[in-house]
Design goal:
The protein is mainly alpha-helical. The chain contains eight helices and five strands.
Length: about 230
């Protein structure tokens, strides 16, 4: 077989491979997607509920951390429920939190679980009666989203006192600038105020500013990036 003939054969083989690749590419591009974004979101949400949300009560349980419930976990579940258009789950988790975590000032105790005497309740020995600002912020945010998605103003009415208490008890002023603190007790410090940037949530403050004109939420957006 001559070198010239071998060259022709290689060219033909390369052309055949190119045609095969183009055909396969076209098949892949035109093949229907097995999962739409909506069905994937629904599937992930169901898995999350099965793993962490108590079906009978709506309580959110952290099975990786001594089966405790935190206000942050409640807030993440409420956000996921409203994103997934699951009003039943949203209302159930909100109701559990209101009955078991919400304080008279409308903020939420941050940790609930098995106490040293074996009963279930707020873990006061670990400061569980204090608030966690990120949990309160995201619960309020979830309520605002719910009021819009389900056209129900009662959710906004529920969010309003939470927003008021976030501002009055979880925002501290340093050198004339408002900052979000990690909880409701930092403002009471007689020595120094510690600011934890991991609690800054400017995405939420922007939305709060559009719904609540009584507080300067945009100032918190600015201080989050200062």
């Amino acid at each position: 077989m001559t070198t010239k003939l071998i060259g022709y054969i290689l060219i033909i083989c390369a052309a055949i491979m190119l045609v095969i690749v183009l055909l396969m590419s076209n098949i892949i591009q035109t093949r229907p997607q097995l999962f739409s974004a909506k069905s994937l979101l629904s599937s992930v949400w169901q898995d999350y509920k099965n793993q962490y949300v108590e079906a009978a009560s709506g309580r959110v349980i952290n099975k990786q951390q001594s089966n405790v419930t935190t206000s942050e976990g409640i807030s993440y579940t409420m956000l996921r429920a409203v994103w997934s258009d699951d009003k039943v789950a949203f209302d159930q988790t909100l109701s559990w939190a209101q009955k078991n975590l919400q304080r008279p000032d409308s903020l939420f105790s941050w940790e609930y679980g098995t106490k040293t005497n074996g009963t279930q309740g707020i873990l006061t020995d670990q400061g569980g009666q204090n608030s966690a600002t990120d949990g309160d912020v995201n619960i309020a945010l979830a309520l605002i989203f719910a009021s819009k998605r389900w056209s129900d103003p009662t959710y906004m009415s529920t969010a309003t006192p939470i927003l008021n208490s976030i501002w009055s008890k979880e925002v501290v002023t340093v050198a004339g600038v408002p900052y979000v603190s990690a909880d409701d007790i930092e403002r009471l410090s007689k020595t120094r105020v510690v600011i934890n940037p991991s609690y800054f949530e400017p995405y939420a403050y922007r939305i709060f500013a559009s719904m609540d004109k009584t507080h300067n939420w945009m100032a918190l957006v600015d201080s989050s990036y200062a």
